[in-house]
Amino acid sequence: MFESLSDRLSGIFDKLTGRGALSENDVNEALREIRRALIEADVALPIVRSFTDKVRNRAVGAEVVKSVTPGQMVVKIVHDQLVEMLGEEAHPIDLNAPAPVAIMMVGLQGSGKTTTTAKLARRLTQRDKRKVLMASLDTRRPAAQEQLKVLGEQNGIDTLPIIEGQGPVEIAKRSMSAAKLGGYDVVMLDTAGRIHIDEPLMKEMADVKAAAQPHEILLVADSLTGQDAVNLAKSFDERVGITGIALTRMDGDGRGGAALSMQAVTGKPVKLIGTGEKSDALEDFHPKRIADRILG
Ligand code: GDP
């Protein structure tokens, strides 16, 4: 599919012989390949630029240790820089708050919000032994509430009974009261999405947040989001204040550059990745693995 960055860089540096330190010229040629690899991996342009600047600073003048080739050395610098920007460790979902802990799922329509809500609810129930209540706050899309109910039934997770005519804020409040009364540990709020970011959507998210006081707000985004990733993450973070990101469709061919873009622009970690349509296709985000994937 793609020629790996390691192969491309070896190609460049194989021409060089007997150097002690990486020169600016060598590094600039390598940076062109790095830039190309990042763009192919769907990393947004402003992030590509800041990333390559950081790599340049680290690489120019760096002594090439004897045991590696200059190409391997630059690949290591790129890899280390990627891991630094993606975060060294996996970031677990934080439930460290008085019960019921609300987790609010936000994102565009079709990003995988409802699926990810059910996946996470299932994991919290089965693996972490929490009592979870799910509620759909999507009152616009016909059948959205029904979709979550069906997923709840399939996975043995309770959903808030549907009351026709209630708005998202009312449903959020009702979820929190029902969870308190029912002794639930976690409430998962699946909010409405739109095709595009717009003001009514953002206002609705802010109102739901104020009503439910969620401890986690996860932005669900398709890993194939390309140049839009920066705008998307920035808008949701500025207006709603996200605590983390869930990247879906990582089972596809994409190389997951959106992870780098969204994390770089918000400073918020990618916490979860979706790796399929089934309810158990959810994994923790491992920065090193994604760094390898972005490098190809
Ligand atoms: P929502 O509109 O954001 O709630 O999106 P949905 O949860 O309804 O998901 C939209 C479509 O994407 C559905 O067909 C899901 O099965 C699919 N989907 C969600 N997450 C993943 C994933 O990680 N991998 C794959 N392959 N499909 C996914």
UniProtKB/TrEMBL annotation:
Keywords assigned by UniProt, alphabetized: Cytoplasm, GTP-binding, Hydrolase, Nucleotide-binding, Ribonucleoprotein, RNA-binding, Signal recognition particle
Boundaries of every SRP54-type proteins GTP-binding domain copy: 269-282
Subcellular localization: Cell inner membrane; Cytoplasm
One CC-aspect GO term: signal recognition particle
Catalytic activity: GTP + H2O = GDP + phosphate + H(+)
Broad EC category: hydrolase
Keyword Nuclease: no
Enzyme Commission (EC) number: 3.6.5.4
Binding-site residues, GTP: 107-114, 190-194, 248-251
Membrane topology field: Peripheral membrane protein
GO molecular function terms attached to this record: 7S RNA binding; GTP binding; GTPase activity
Annotated GO biological process: SRP-dependent cotranslational protein targeting to membrane
Highest taxon listed in the record's lineage: Bacteria
Domain notes per entry: Composed of three domains: the N-terminal N domain, which is responsible for interactions with the ribosome, the central G domain, which binds GTP, and the C-terminal M domain, which binds the RNA and the signal sequence of the RNC.
Membership in a protein family: Belongs to the GTP-binding SRP family. SRP54 subfamily.
Subunit structure: Part of the signal recognition particle protein translocation system, which is composed of SRP and FtsY. SRP is a ribonucleoprotein composed of Ffh and a 4.5S RNA molecule.
Record function comment: Involved in targeting and insertion of nascent membrane proteins into the cytoplasmic membrane. Binds to the hydrophobic signal sequence of the ribosome-nascent chain (RNC) as it emerges from the ribosomes. The SRP-RNC complex is then targeted to the cytoplasmic membrane where it interacts with the SRP receptor FtsY. Interaction with FtsY leads to the transfer of the RNC complex to the Sec translocase for insertion into the membrane, the hydrolysis of GTP by both Ffh and FtsY, and the dissociation of the SRP-FtsY complex into the individual components.
Record protein name field: Signal recognition particle protein
Biological classification of the source: Bacteria, Pseudomonadati, Pseudomonadota, Alphaproteobacteria, Hyphomicrobiales
Gene that this polypeptide is encoded by: ffh
Full-sequence range covered: 1 to 296 of 519
